[in-house]
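Extended Data, record Ribose-5-phosphate isomerase A
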Amino acid sequence: MTQDEQKRAVAAAAIEHISIGSIIGVGTGSTANYFIDELAKVKHKIDGAVASSDATAKRLQSHGIEVIDLNNVDDLPVYIDGADEITPHLHMIKGGGGALTREKIVSAVARKFVCITDQSKLVDVLGNFPLPIEVIPMARSYVAREILLLGGQPALRQGFITDNGNVILDVHGLQILNPVEMESALNQITGIVTNGLFARRAADLLLLGTDEGVKTMH
Ligand code: 5RP
């Protein structure tokens, strides 16, 4: 299977993880887009969706799926999203699409995080993919200096502003052996809105697209 076919296969498999009559948390990116297309086929069975980005909200609405404000949601049984890297412990790097802050908020609310990726995303150690960090614009230089002290090489994502009006620093050169510790350390730097490590709240389940079909990892 090609990478794209693997993404479509895991998106289809994720439909098994939604409950009838519930609101679904929906991620951002090409794999999440395939999931939205699958969700459209069963839209009469769900009450609506919470979107993790403006792009996802638009795609959901284009399929006639109601987008609900997270503030009006008491219970979110499941959040379904892709990742840029994921380990066998289901720790992730996310934010390649720049939607990390809303993704982290929606996944924090969700009772279950189902990650859907093709096999290229599975790694033993996080960090080969540059770690995205959303930063308040006036703190950009300060945060970059702090990241250098942690051993990373920050690069400003050119021409990109997040849905929240902030900038992204993509941090190269990190070998993240303890993602929970690194996520917490980055959370302490003033000016960082969100870092793209999803380790303190990891995925609960990974649906991995492989040449042999969809594999499930817990
Ligand atoms: C967006 C994300 C995506 O989940 C991540 O970039 C994976 O994208 P794709 O499914 O296109 O490979 O975190 O902010």
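Summary. DSSP finds six helices and 13 strands in the chain.
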